[in-house]
Structures are given as C-alpha cells and as structure tokens.
Inverse folding.
C-alpha cells in the first residue's frame, strides 16, 4: 500500500537506497576481486607446477595403488622389523636392517626408534624454547620491564625469530654441524623461543598486579617479584601454552626431519619417494597414532591445568 | 583486630600443625621439577651426543658463513713468476667484473723482455685491466684467453708486467708484493716473506698473533678481521678482501649497465643511445635486473608468489569446504548423531595425518609445485578449520534461531539470519589467522618438495655458497610474513573488535 511520501521522507528513502546500492557495489567488487585473485592464483599455480593438474589427476590414483602392499601382513612386519617372506635383498623388504639392538636379542624396531628421536627433538626444543621464552617474556612485558629499550629489543628479537624460516635455521646449522638431530633441535628451539615468548609475555601483561604491589611494598627484588608475584599466577597458562607448542613441535620436527634433520620424517620421505608401500603405510600409521596420542595427552593435561580456557584457539 | 603474642602463635601452631605447615608436595615441587628438568637435559645431552657434535663441528666455518650473508669478497691473486714478472688475476666469477681497477690496489708496471714458450702461463698476464690489455683481448674470461701462444718456439718479446703490487686491506694494513718479498703490515706490526718460488714458506722473524702457519714452512694465513684474509706461499698471494653489502644486486657483470652509477643508468634509460639496438634501454635494464644471473630476481619473486598462492588458495578452499561440513558436524544444527560423529572424526583424521604427510603424497602425485602445496594445506586445514567452526557453531546463542524459526522461516533462512550473523566474524577471523600462519608453513612444506620459495631456499642452502642470496630470500619471506600479519590483524580487529587477538 504505497503512500505518498513527504519530500523529506522521500529524501531519506533516496539516501537509503543510494547507500544500499553503494554497499552492494562494494560487496560485488570485493567478491569479484576475490574471484579474480582465486582464478589468477589457480592459473598461476597450474602454470608453475611441474605436473599440470588435469594431466596428473588420473595418475593420482595409480600412485595410491602403488602404496597398497602385496600382502597386508607386510605392514606389521615393516612396523616391527620382522623378516619378510618376500625378502629379495632390495630396500623394499629389508625390514630387519634398521633394528636398534639394546641387548643381543632385544631390539627397538627402526621406526619406533626414529619416532622416539623425533619426539625427543620436539620435547627438548620445547623445553629449551620455553626456558629462554620465559626469561624473555619478563623482559618484554610492560608491567615488569619499565625500560622501553630493553622491552622493545626483546619484542623485536622474538618477532624476527618467529618469522625467520625454520628451513634456513636448520640448513644453516646443517652446513657446519655434522649430520644428526642438532640442526632440527636448533631450528625448532629458536622458533619456539619466539612463539612461546610472545604468548608468555601476553600472559604476564594480563596478570593481576596486586601480588606484585605487595612484594614491591615490602622491597622485593626483581627476581623475587617474578618468583612470588608472577610465577604462581602465570605458570598454569605457561604450562598450557607449553603443551600446545609441544603438539605443534612434534609436527614441525617431523617436517624438518623430512627436509634433512633425521628422525622419522626422513624415513617417510625416502619411503614415499621410492614407492615402498608397506613401509610407508607402517610409518604413516605410527606417525598418525603418535600425533593423536600426543594431542590427546596434551589436551587432557591442559584441561586439568587451566580448564576449558585452554581450548580457545591460540593466536 | 586481635594481636597475638609469639607464645600464643606457637600454641596455635602446636594445636593445628596441618594448617600452618605447608604440605610436603608444595615444599618439594619446585626442587623436584628443577631436578627433573636438569635430569632431562642431561639425558638429552647424552641421547643426542650434543657434546660430541659441538666439539667436532666447525665453528669458524659457521662464523664465515654467517658473515657472508651481508658481505661479498673480491679475490685477487698476485703471482710472481720464476723470471720475476708478476701478474694479478681475479677469478672468473668475481663480483668485481671483467675490467677491474679497484681503488684499493696500486700496481706499478715495467716493460720486460720475456721468453714466452718456457712459461706459457705468463701470457695470461695482468688481466687487472690496465693499459695494454683493456682491448678486445681482455674479454670476460681472462684466464681462458691465455693459451694460444704456448706451443710455438721459444720467442722473446717485450711485455708490460707488474713490478710492484700494493693492496690496502684497511686504512692501516697493506699487502705489498715485489718480485723479491711479500710484505704484510698491520698497524705497527709487519711480516716479511721472501719469494722462494718453492713450496717452503719462511717469514723473517716471528709471526704476530694475526698470522698463522699451520705447519712449518706451509703457507702463511694472514687475517685482517672483517676486512678479509690472505694466504701467502712461495710465489703467490691469494687475497680475500671483504666488503659490506650485496654485490651487483641490480646489474650483474655481464650487463651493459654494470659498473655505472645510478645517475648514469637513469640518464641512459631516460634518453641515452641504445646499448642494444634491438630494444630500448629501459627494457634492457629491466631484463638485466630480472635475469641477473647471481640474484635471479625473477625466479625468486615467482617462487615467493607460488608460496603466497599456496597459502592463499589452500586456506580459502579449506574454509569453503569446512563451512558446510561444520554445519553437519555441529550437534545443535544437525540433530543426527551419526552424521555429527562421522564429520567430526573426518576432521580429526584430516588434522592428524598432518601437513607433512599430505605434502609428500601430493608431491608424489602432482610433482613439485604450488598445486601439491595448496592441496596439502587444503587437506590439513579442512580438518583444523572444520573443528574450530563446528565448535563455534555449538557455542552459539540459540535464541535468534528460535525467533526466526517461530515466525515460520525456511531452514536456509534460519541459518542465514539466526546462525550466520553470530558465527561469521569468528569464521572469518580464524580463516585469516590460518592464512597468516600458513604463509609461514608453506615455506617449509615447499622445502620438502612442494615447490615455492622454500624449495629454492633449501636448494641454495645445500651448496653452502650462495649465502647473500639466501639472506635475500629470508628477508623477502620475513617481509611477507610481517605484511600478512599486519593485514590479517587489521582485518580481524575490524571484524571482531580490538580484544580478539
């Protein structure tokens, strides 16, 4: 039932329509820009990839077929380093070769041994990163470090260290350290210092200042303020972030391993590139199980430490 | 307030000891924790044989590599031939270019009668472009051009050779080479080494701290700290003179613009005579910069773009797929327990298989390149984003939905007006966060074989030579990460307010 609008109301309506039109145009432009970016990106990706997407797509399933072992019992044999009936001396079936003997007949299967190395790289790097991050976080927190130069330096240091590509740190250490897990440890710990340091100092800045005021009032030193005013408050959160970082570091240390840092990642990369179906499936299942176990354990512990708050997505 | 005397306090404590005395666990937990920590660190020290690795690793090499990130070297070699003629050569790929006249090197020349065939190498002579050799003979490859005169009968001819070379390493240290002695001065100290034309090298007098001779009569290494070093043997001095900065960042030694000042280049581009008749100076300059053989700008930037595209498309597609799936996974949206559970377990599977495994699989299938990288990111993050999205959906306020349902809206309208306004900012903010963090992980996925700048970085690192180039790529990556951090932070705080991160 259209009624005659007064002049002023008509003007308002006109304005409103104009605004709505502008908004629609902005949305359309934004969406169009996004679509264009997506199309260009896809074209660029296909152009620069070594195999074209649609050419390679049929072979994708061939490759999946390659992975299927000739006998599914091969998978547990590969996993536990048992002798294969198909052993022909080739790398594909030499499961017992990598055994790590503890005594003359007690051994750790190769993949478990390497998985332990990877896990330990992750744990050690997280511990080291957290130790340095803890110190740096108190230097970077505005409520603990009144000197802006020290604070700024600590923050810039953590930013650079966080953005520094892990590959470069690993590669640099690989260039002068003898081969082994050290480059991976260095790369993961250095990155962890930055990542944990940032989360830690944000926790410290959000801490309740009353205990600190109390300690200052009775003349507590800087160390005493950290120890008695802050640590009791922030430790549960620190521990929670530590565990969260541990989950991430297990993945990163596997990846760095694949790049050249040893551990299970390297075995997985070799096995996939050589098309050893049973070995690949064995490693992937072990990795899958370990990652789930670490995630579950850390989730359980975090829930106990800080409750549901631990499950806010960390940034 | 009641004031207690110490005796009363003691009496109270004696009556209720369990209240006042801290529990044993509380007393012991810090030392216990520190003990465990130290034990673990010691265990790791043994487990990874860290002590052994640190002892056997070459720390000098590390320092040398690190300094190469921001410096370059010129490497002249002064050789004294048996007949007393001297010449100065630069290696073929020395950043100093084909026609060097560095200000830090002074060469005195004399005319000398030489027997050519006995010492064919002599004809290589001073490529250090000076006077008689600056013409066509001194093409880009000085040392290769040497051979022609060799096999002919011994002839004697007049040649201009270097009679004295002085290389200034720093303001107060120089290396002076004459056919008889090699003299190195650093501050007040000096070393004199007679030229013996044999393998044995013996300095006159004791060596100062900055010179080193590993074995008796072996070559002498002289260090000038940051400015470089030199190796002296019986008939030559190899000098490594170091400079701060990146050499030939825009124009390589092969380029027509090499060695020209910025003003000259600009005036050439703006309206100079064509250096190459087939194209304008501008396009020649751009071409020379993009295809600069030592910095490979075009390749580096293409690879960087590949990495950015990987993260962008991977995250975007993951979010697009995770969006509808999360509605199925959320208990309060889809009232079908099996469907919820299946979708959630699917998310868990995607997440736990991990980017590494996906990347290796896809690299095998599609070959190295951004497709493999984006597929890996897409598969992993469909799981991660799906999980976060469905959790956000399960935490929504159900009142708007009930309101929209109660007026008889269709299910699509209920979701559009009752659910989406609550969760969309969260969804977008989490997607942005993943986009930003994936830009970082795309580098390492790339190094594993998925292509992009990660792979290029890793390949350059393996040769241990091209450190400035590596640092260039690192700076580009750090810059990109910072820019994306800022964009994503700005967008997120616009979407969900300041407190969101």
């Amino acid at each position: 039932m259209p009624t005659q609008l007064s002049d002023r109301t008509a003007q308002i309506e006109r304005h409103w329509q104009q605004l709505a039109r502008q908004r629609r145009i902005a949305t359309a432009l934004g969406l169009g820009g996004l679509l264009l970016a997506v199309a260009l990106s896809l074209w660029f990706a296909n152009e620069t990839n070594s195999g074209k997407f649609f050419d390679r797509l049929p072979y994708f399933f061939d490759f999946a077929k390659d992975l299927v072992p000739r006998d599914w019992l091969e998978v547990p044999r590969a996993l536990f380093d048992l002798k294969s009936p198909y052993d022909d001396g080739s790398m594909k079936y030499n499961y017992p070769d990598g055994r790590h003997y503890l005594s003359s007949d007690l051994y750790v299967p190769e993949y478990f041994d390497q998985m332990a190395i990877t896990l330990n790289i992750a744990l050690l790097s997280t511990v080291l990163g957290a130790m340095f991050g803890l110190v740096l976080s108190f230097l970077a927190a505005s409520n603990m470090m009144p000197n802006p130069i020290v604070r700024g330096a600590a923050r810039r240091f953590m930013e650079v260290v966080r953005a520094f590509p892990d590959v470069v740190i690993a590669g640099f250490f690989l260039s002068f350290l003898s081969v082994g897990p050290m480059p991976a440890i260095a790369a993961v710990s250095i990155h962890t210092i930055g990542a944990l340091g940032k989360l830690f100092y944000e926790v410290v800045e959000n801490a309740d200042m009353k205990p600190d005021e109390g300690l200052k009032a009775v003349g507590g030193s800087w160390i005493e303020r950290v120890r008695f005013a802050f640590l009791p408050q922030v430790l549960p959160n620190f521990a929670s972030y530590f565990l969260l970082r541990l989950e991430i570091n297990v993945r990163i240390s596997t990846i760095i391993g694949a790049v050249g840092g040893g551990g299970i990642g390297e075995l997985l990369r070799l096995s996939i590139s050589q098309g050893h179906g049973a070995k690949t499936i064995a490693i992937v299942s072990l990795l899958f199980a370990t990652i789930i176990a670490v995630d579950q354990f850390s989730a359980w512990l975090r829930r106990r430490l800080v409750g549901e708050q631990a499950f806010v997505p960390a940034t | 307030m009641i004031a207690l005397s110490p005796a009363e306090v003691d009496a109270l404590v004696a009556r209720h000891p369990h209240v006042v005395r801290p529990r044993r666990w509380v007393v012991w937990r810090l030392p216990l924790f520190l003990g465990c920590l130290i034990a673990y660190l010691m265990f790791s020290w043994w487990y990874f044989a860290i002590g052994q690795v640190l002892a056997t690793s070459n720390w000098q090499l590390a320092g040398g590599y690190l300094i190469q990130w921001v410096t370059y070297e010129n490497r002249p070699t002064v050789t004294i031939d048996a007949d007393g003629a001297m010449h100065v050569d630069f290696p073929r790929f020395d950043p100093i270019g084909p026609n060097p006249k560095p200000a830090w090197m002074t060469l005195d020349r004399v005319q000398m009668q030489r027997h050519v065939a006995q010492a064919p190498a002599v004809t290589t002579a001073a490529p250090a472009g000076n006077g008689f050799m600056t013409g066509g003979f001194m093409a880009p490859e000085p040392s290769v051009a040497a051979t022609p005169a060799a096999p002919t009968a011994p002839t004697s001819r007049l040649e201009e050779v270097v009679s004295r070379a002085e290389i200034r390493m720093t303001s107060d240290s120089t290396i002076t080479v004459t056919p008889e002695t090699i003299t190195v001065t650093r501050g007040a100290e000096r070393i004199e080494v007679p030229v013996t034309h044999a393998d044995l090298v013996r300095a006159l007098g004791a060596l100062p701290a900055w010179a080193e001779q590993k074995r008796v009569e072996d070559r002498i290494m002289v260090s000038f700290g940051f400015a470089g070093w030199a190796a002296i043997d019986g008939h030559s001095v190899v000098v490594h003179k170091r400079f701060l900065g990146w050499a030939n960042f825009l124009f390589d030694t092969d380029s027509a613009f090499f060695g020209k000042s910025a003003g000259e280049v600009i005036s050439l581009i703006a309206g100079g005579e064509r250096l190459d008749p087939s194209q304008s100076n501008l396009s020649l300059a751009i071409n020379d910069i993009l295809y600069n053989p030592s910095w490979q700008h075009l390749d580096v930037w293409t690879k960087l773009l590949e990495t950015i595209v990987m993260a962008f498309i991977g995250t975007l597609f993951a979010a697009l797929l995770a969006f509808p799936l999360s509605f199925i996974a959320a208990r309060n949206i889809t009232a079908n327990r099996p469907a919820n559970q299946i979708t959630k377990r699917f998310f868990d599977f995607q997440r736990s298989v991990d980017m590494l495994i996906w990347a290796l699989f896809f690299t095998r299938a599609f070959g190295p390149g951004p497709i493999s990288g984006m597929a890996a990111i897409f598969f992993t993050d469909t799981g991660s984003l799906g999980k976060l999205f469905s959790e956000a959906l399960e935490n929504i306020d159900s009142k708007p939905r009930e309101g929209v349902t109660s007026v008889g809206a269709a299910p699509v309208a209920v979701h559009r007006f009752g659910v989406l306004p609550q969760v969309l900012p969260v969804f977008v903010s989490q997607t942005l966060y993943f986009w930003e963090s994936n830009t970082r992980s795309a580098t390492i996925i790339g190094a594993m074989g998925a292509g992009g700048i990660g792979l290029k970085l890793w390949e350059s690192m393996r040769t241990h030579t091209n450190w400035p180039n590596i640092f260039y790529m690192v700076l580009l990556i750090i810059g990109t990460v910072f820019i994306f951090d800022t964009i994503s932070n700005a967008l997120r705080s616009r979407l969900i307010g300041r407190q969101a991160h």
User: Anything to note?
Assistant: The longest strand of chain B covers residues 156-170. Chain B has two domains: 71-244, 297-500. Chain B touches chain A through 70 residues (CB under 8 Å).
